[in-house]
Write a structure and sequence with these properties.
Organism: Uabimicrobium amorphum
CATH architecture of one domain: 3-Layer(aba) Sandwich
Distance between the termini: 41 Å
Bound molecules: adenosine monophosphate
Oligomer: single chain
Radius of gyration: 24 Å
CATH class of one domain: Alpha Beta
Low-confidence stretches: none
Number of strands: 27
CATH superfamily of one domain: ANL, N-terminal domain
Helix content: 25-40%
GO molecular function: acetate-CoA ligase activity; ATP binding
Mean pLDDT: 94
Strand content: 15-25%
Structural class: alpha/beta
Shape: globular
EC number: 6.2.1.1
Protein name: acetate--CoA ligase
InterPro entries: AMP-bd_C, AMP-bd_C_sf, AMP-binding_CS, AMP-dep_synth/lig_dom, ANL_N_sf
Number of helices: 18
Length: 579
């Protein structure tokens, strides 16, 4: 598809980034920092408190839409006071600087208040995806040394109660529930908040103080806790300004779940440093409901994801045409490849092409984007943010070199450093070091750059599975499957899908005495769903007499995938036997 959307000179609102080349040339991180207050680099201060002394104090910061159709607004001043209370709650519980506060909640105002309060008390906020089952939660809380958990009564009952005794470091569980609802061994959120003062003075924060811990999945080993520091807020702010084009009076809707990095960087911090109204919808995805929200809430900027867009496309143009979106002016996407058809569909559905952005947990913020005032090549990720040097590299023996030839595929790398770059994987120095060489951070993604300097995603360089934008580790699934009494070997691959891009498929070899039949397959699927959570569990399980392995005994996922997809098997010289 070679359509190029010509940038519109008569955009209804002048974009923040009008001349990409000029802005890139003149950009400096020092200047970007100067757009924030010099008072305190603390993320929550920059996002909320600094606005309280300005006319923004009475502006709506958070508009929450509840599942039952209810709605509640919080101004910047109210968010400041409520988060002060939560900071005092943590302080009163004796939670010290750098200690981890985990959050396991749906999209409810208390979660947003808790995130800000945690940052204000210089504790580290660590989001958990509320659709996770107990196993991924346990692994992440153990690695992260979770001292406090904030969750809801029902999530506590379903997911935490049974693993709590395996979390000796977890000292406090704060339950968001009816004030009267007391659970043994837990605190009640409202009761604690009521007793806490709404006056809090944020300690002077060091730019390198740890602020957030975001878990991500690798091909092998346990989940990795990516450390982010308070000065990441500089990048959150400036990328929101350029790529999301935040302007005063915007009503912004980020549909990403706050259990993942997008829901934090661009669902909490960035819209608020930029002073816009942040819409939070508690309800699950539903085509008509989403159109209704976009229309009724007069959303101006919408940050969503390819899977959701493909689901809207599937419902057809006739549905979207029943609604009107005169206020919508910028539609943006992240998390998976945005196919060219989806970009074009945006034009047909909303009169606006969809702008892709690329980044990852480790980069902490948007690295590459299509901007409102720059032509779009549908299917491309766009151009590096001002301040960001993205390159395509190849690894040869132990050396790394940049690829200058347009269209040649290599690994996407970013030159270090930038404010929101992760500062480590918690307790895993070796794994962190492996991501860097000299001036490069290696993303693990394959990409290419065309002759105009525009970047195109090609695929992952590893076996990590990206299902609806959720990164899933095959290793995590395999480890849980191996805990089942019938399973001798397990190998998990990514199987392509039209809507969710790909989903995990598991291959299993059974121990002697177990029958590879439908009953066992059903049982295994139930087992893994219960342990991992349905959203991230394999959709298919296939039995094989034995799995292909290297001579050193490693399951060859690459071969399983090639066979599943009917692709060439490639080099099989390391195969244990001819399977
Ligand atoms: P996460 O760390 O969970 O945010 O996932 C990051 C990964 O998602 C990247 O390394 C890519 O593999 C994928 N990803 C994110 N944005 C895009 C995009 N615009 N196009 C293609 N893949 C993307």
């Amino acid at each position: 598809m070679d359509t190029i959307y010509k940038k519109t000179d008569n955009l209804p609102v002048k974009p923040n980034l009008q001349n990409y080349k000029e802005e890139r040339t003149n950009f400096s991180w020092e200047q970007a920092k100067n757009e924030l207050s010099s008072e305190n680099i603390n993320m929550a201060y920059q996002a909320i408190d600094r606005h309280v002394a300005t006319p923004l104090r009475d502006h709506v910061a958070l508009r929450w839409l509840g599942k039952k159709g209810e709605s509640r607004d919080f101004t910047f001043a109210e968010m400041s006071r409520e988060s002060n209370r939560f900071a005092n709650v943590l302080k009163n519980l004796g939670i010290k600087k750098g200690e981890r506060v985990f959050g396991l909640c749906g999209r409810i105002p208390e979660l947003y208040i808790a995130i800000l309060g945690t940052l204000k008390n210089l504790n580290v906020f660590c989001p958990l995806f509320s659709a996770f089952g107990p196993d991924p939660i346990l692994a992440r809380m153990q690695i992260g040394d979770g001292k406090v958990l904030i969750t809801t009564a029902s999530l506590y009952r379903k997911k935490i109660a049974k693993i709590r005794d395996q979390l000796p470091k977890l000292e406090h569980v704060i339950i968001i529930a009816d004030p009267q609802q007391e659970t043994e061994n837990t605190h009640n959120f409202s009761a604690l908040m009521e007793k806490a003062s709404d006056d809090f003075s944020i300690e002077k924060t060091d730019p390198e103080d740890m602020a957030l811990l975001h878990f991500t999945s690798g091909t092998t080993g346990k989940p990795k806790g990516a450390i982010h520091v308070h000065q990441a807020v500089i990048h959150h702010h400036i990328s929101g300004k350029y790529a999301l084009d935040f302007q005063p009076q915007d009503i912004y809707w980020c549909t990403a779940d706050p259990g993942w990095v997008t829901g934090l960087s661009y669902g909490v911090i960035s819209p608020w440093t930029n002073g816009v109204t942040n819409l939070i919808d508690e309800a699950d995805f539903n085509v008509r409901h989403w159109y209704q929200v976009l229309q009724d809430q007069k959303v101006t900027i919408w940050y969503s994801a390819p899977t959701a867009i493909r689901m809207l496309m599937k419902a057809g143009l006739s549905v979207v045409k029943e609604y009107n979106f005169p206020h919508l002016r910028h539609v943006v996407s992240v998390g998976e490849p945005l196919n060219p058809e989806a970009v074009v569909w945006g034009e047909k559905a909303f009169g606006l092409p969809i702008h892709d952005t690329w980044w990852q947990t480790e980069t902490g913020g948007i690295m590459i984007a299509n901007y409102p005032a720059v032509d779009i090549k549908p299917g491309s990720m766009g151009y590096p943010m001002p301040g960001i040097e993205a390159v395509i590299v190849k690894h040869e023996d132990s050396s790394v070199s940049e690829i200058d030839t347009p269209e040649e595929v290599g690994e996407l790398a970013i030159k270090v450093s930038w404010p929101s770059m992760f500062r480590g994987y918690l307790h895993e120095e070796g794994r962190y070091k492996k991501c860097f060489s000299g001036q490069y951070y290696f993303s693990g993604d394959l990409a290419k750059k065309d002759s105009d300097g525009c970047f195109w995603f090609v695929g992952r360089a590893d076996d990590v599975i990206n299902s609806s934008g959720h990164l899933i580790s095959p290793f995590e699934i395999e480890s849980i499957l191996l805990e089942h009494e019938a399973v001798a070997e397990a190998g998990v691959i990514a199987k392509p899908d039209q809507v969710v891009m790909e989903y995990p498929k598991a291959f299993v070899a059974l121990k002697p005495g177990f029958n590879a039949d439908e009953t066992l397959e059903k049982q295994l699927r139930g087992f893994i769903r219960k342990r991992m959570g349905a959203t991230v569990a394999p959709k298919e399980i296939e039995f094989l007499p034995s799995l292909p392995k290297t001579k050193s005994g490693k399951i060859m996922r690459r071969l399983l995938k090639a066979r599943e997809l009917g692709l060439p098997e490639g080099d099989t010289s390391t195969l244990e036997t001819n399977l």
